[in-house]
Backbone:
């Protein structure tokens, strides 16, 4: 299993960013996927999840209405579109997969929201 995040960076408050996760080594279209973040000095926080087909999504309350999770099962890629970003969204963002009771994580991509 390989999960590779990209697309992070520095953005001003109120701005937008899309992070991506390229997946390989497993049947991407058969598995639900999640995004998890870790802010500086804080623990892990689950952000969003999407089912295998992309028809059902879930979000933590703090990002509802601002973030959108999606997936492309042809490109084997997971996305997180982040709009109206706030300084408290600053974190390393990880895509995660749980399969056969094993959790897999990418290396993460840094998102910094600052003026």
Residues:
């Amino acid at each position: 299993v390989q999960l590779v995040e990209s697309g992070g960076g520095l953005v001003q408050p109120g701005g937008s960013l899309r992070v991506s996760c390229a997946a390989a080594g497993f049947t991407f279209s058969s598995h639900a996927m999640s995004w998890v973040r870790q802010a500086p000095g804080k623990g892990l926080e689950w952000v969003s999840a999407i089912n295998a087909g992309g028809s059902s999504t879930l979000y933590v309350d703090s990002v509802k209405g601002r973030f959108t999770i999606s997936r492309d099962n042809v490109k084997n890629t997971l996305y997180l579109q982040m709009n109206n970003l706030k300084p408290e969204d600053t974190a390393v963002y990880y895509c995660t997969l749980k399969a056969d009771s094993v959790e897999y994580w990418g290396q993460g991509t840094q998102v910094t929201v600052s003026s």
Notes: The longest strand covers residues 91-99.
